[in-house]
Amino acid sequence: MPYAYAGGLYVHAAKRKGYIEIDRCKRPPILIRGSGEPRDFDLRDGLLTWDTGYGPSVEPNGESAHPSVLGAYQLATARRRTWRLPRLSVAEEPPGLRTIGYSEHAGRTVFWIATRSVNLGKAGNAPVNSAVYSAHF
Q1: For 20-73, what is each residue's pLDDT tens digit?
Q2: CA atoms of 50 and 70, how far apart (whole Å)
Q3: Are the CB atoms for 50 and 38 separated by under 8 Å?
Q4: How far apart are CA 14 and CA 11, in angstroms?
Q5: What whole-number distance in Å separates Cα of residue 41 and Cα of residue 72?
Q6: What is the per-residue pLDDT for 25?
Q7: For residue 72, what is the DSSP state?
């Protein structure tokens, strides 16, 4: 998602490239520095997660030169952590390594669901096979 909202907090990509902004009611916003274009915001259980990976519709030459990451920010402590995402060879795509997928979290475990193969269709590309990576925050 391009944004997330929960418990009076609104999270979105900041105007400053690579930054994430957490808007709070009647309090100054929190800015989190990063790299790349943050997306797939997930705000639950006191934890914010995001990634800078890509969906299946991005062309190979449309990816950033920055390594893609999965990020997590604990709201209560302001503790932050990032993990570098794997670049995988995707079947049915032009040759080369890609970082395609999305992130989620459950409790304090973060997940990267990486696309392994794509169905190329007229209505758009759809993931067919995925690999799941997890890490504990």
Answers
A1: 999 998 899 999 998 788 999 999 999 999 999 887 655 555 555 668 999 999
A2: 6
A3: yes
A4: 9
A5: 10
A6: 87
A7: E
Write the single-letter amino acid at 22: I
pLDDT at 5: 95
The set of residues, in sequence order, having a beta carbon less than 8 Å from that of 121 and lying 6+ positions away, is none
Q: What angle do CA 26, 30, 31 make, to 5 degrees?
A: 145
Q: What's the distance, CA 55 to chain centroid?
A: 10
Cβ neighbour number for residue 129 with a 10 Å cutoff:
12
Say how far apart CA 43 and CA 41 lie, in whole Å: 7
Q: State residue 95's pLDDT score.
A: 58
Phi, psi dihedral angles at 78 (to 5 degrees): 65, 15
User: Running DSSP on this structure, what letter comes out for residue 61?
Assistant: G
- Rounded Cα gap, residues 121 and 93, in angstroms: 12
Biggest CA pair distance of the chain: 50
